Amino acid sequence: MTDTQNGEPRTLLEAVRYFSDPDVALAFVAKLRWPGGKPVCPQCGGREHSFVKTRRIWKCRVCKKQFSVKVGTIFEDSPLSFDKWLPAIWLIANSKNGVSSHEMGRSLGVTQKTRHGRQGQDCGGRGHGARGGASRMRR
Questions:
Q1: Domains in the chain: boundaries
Q2: Which residue among 12, 33, 77, 130 has its CA within the 20 to 30 Å range from the CA of 89?
């Protein structure tokens, strides 16, 4: 069941279903990132923009730069979409004792490389199962 007051998910299955719609996930993150969900250009601070629906990005009418909701966040360089990120965050936030990467992988249907991201590069190629070089993220 979803929370009756704000329509947000209360179980992992609901979170996966709720955030599987890219427009819902985008609106959810935009609302968290910008007050009232009104985007602000990260380049110039402009508040007038147009939305490119096919790419889910905004174009600032002041500086003409394009930006997404990911710019300037921890998600900026991630090729994963919010349909994977948001249920993972939900799972971590709602777990009493933490979540192992294996449990997260089983719950969300992602690979070991996806769960650990690019940690191996930060450790000189010797970290947590990564084999050095660029890890390829897969669903």
A1: 12-108
A2: 130
Task: Determine the average pLDDT of the residues in 100-128.
Answer: 62
Beta bridge partners of 59: 50, 66
Residues whose CB is less than 8 angstroms from the CB of residue 75 and which lie 6 or more positions away in sequence, other chains included: 82, 85
In 41-139, where do the E strands start and end? 49-52, 57-60, 66-67
Q: At what angle do helices 82-93 and 12-19 cross, to 10 degrees?
A: 160
Q: 119 near 128, Cβ under 8 Å? A: yes
- Quote the CA–CA distance of 33 and 40 in Å, as a whole number: 10
